[in-house]
Design a protein that fits this description.
The complex is a heterodimer of chains A (94) and B (224).
Chain A (H helix, E strand, L loop, with lengths): L4 H24 L4 H13 L23 H16 L1 H8 L1
Helix pairs in contact in A: 1-3
Chain B lengths: L9 H24 L10 H19 L3 E3 L3 E3 L4 H8 L1 H19 L7 H27 L3 H28 L8 H33 L5 H5 L2
Helix pairs in contact in B: 1-4, 1-5, 2-4, 3-4, 3-5, 3-6, 3-7, 4-5, 5-6, 6-7
């Protein structure tokens, strides 16, 4: 099977993504810059920014129930890519 | 730069949603009408296909969060890059789809902040980035060197301007503890530094595409 370069790049990006998004996060302990800013703002100003979430997603924070975070991150990545490739797949079938 | 729920005031959220919907309608009409395209880009199905693949690639690239010592992270946004590959309207649609999937499927970016996230990353980064590219290439010329330098500045300044608008949004929201005088310089200067990486990646991807398959990208052979 000959996988086009663009799809090979996407597969590689998803495969290595847990090194950054999960393992790196556990080692360094980081969050989105805005989350850090919200926490800092709350501490300094005393104004409580309520933790609100009206919709946490079908697979919250790129996790999949029943599997570890690394596997869940990879599976989430492929699910996201597959959803975004639906127009491409449909176009090929037209 | 994904804004979560609870940070923006209803007014800021609402205005951002209206602006985003206006752009969605405008970009969809222009994109599907095929105005300003040539080569492979004149085929609507081909354009849709390119938007789909670019959106998937940007989504995958955004999953690579680079840890930054001090407890935070950064990732490629890809707005300017998408604009250079697909044209500004196609770039908007690709980023819009990415942000929609991230918010609805993975809860990455609040549902009430989706309009603001679209405004920052799919409108400001895409259109400002493309405008900066056009400005630089009008000065340096449209050969490979000019396009490379233009791509670098598009990626770099595009993301910094998107962060500036993000700073305006959160600073205008009373829920957020800091005033505009703090949020704007902090967001802008922080992303002006991080944006250098975005600029370099944008430049290398564009260079690769221009050298190997120029007809498949908007600034290579897709624009009339």
């Amino acid at each position: 099977m000959n996988i086009p370069m663009k799809f090979l790049v996407i597969i590689i990006l998803i495969a290595v993504s847990p090194l950054f998004g999960v393992i790196g996060a556990e080692i360094v302990g980081y969050h989105e810059p805005l989350d850090v800013a919200v926490d800092t703002a709350s501490q300094i100003s005393g104004v409580e920014v309520k933790e609100v979430s009206y919709w946490s997603g079908i697979l919250p924070d790129y996790t999949v129930p029943g599997v570890n975070n690394v596997t869940g991150y990879i599976v989430s990545g492929f699910i996201g890519v597959l959803i975004l490739l639906v127009p491409f797949i449909l176009r090929r079938k037209m | 730069m994904h804004i979560p729920d609870g940070v923006l005031s209803p007014l800021v959220s609402g205005v951002a949603y209206v602006v985003s919907i206006v752009f969605l309608v405008y970009c969809s009409r222009r994109f599907f009408a095929g105005a300003g395209f040539q080569g492979a880009f004149t085929d609507t199905r081909e354009r849709v296909s390119l938007v789909s693949v670019t959106a998937a690639a940007v989504f995958a690239a955004q999953m690579l969060n680079w840890p930054i010592p001090g407890g935070t992270s950064a990732h490629l946004v890809g707005g300017a890059l998408s604009a250079l590959i697909l044209g500004p309207e196609g770039g908007f649609l690709a980023l819009f789809l990415v942000l929609l999937v991230q918010s609805l499927v993975f809860g990455d970016g609040g549902i009430t902040a989706l309009g603001a996230n679209v405004l920052n990353m799919a409108i400001v980064d895409v259109f400002a980035g493309y405008g900066i590219y056009k400005m630089v290439t009008s000065i340096l010329g449209g050969k490979l060197r000019g396009k490379q330098v233009g791509s670098f500045f598009a990626g770099w300044i595009g993301i910094a301007l998107a962060a500036l608008v993000c700073g305006i949004e959160i600073g205008s929201s009373p829920q957020f503890g800091y005033p505009l005088a703090v949020t704007i310089p902090v967001m802008f200067s922080w992303h002006l530094a991080l944006g250098l990486i975005e600029g370099v990646i944008t430049m290398f991807v564009v260079r690769y595409a221009l050298l190997h398959a120029p007809e498949t990208i908007y600034i290579g052979g897709g624009s009339s």
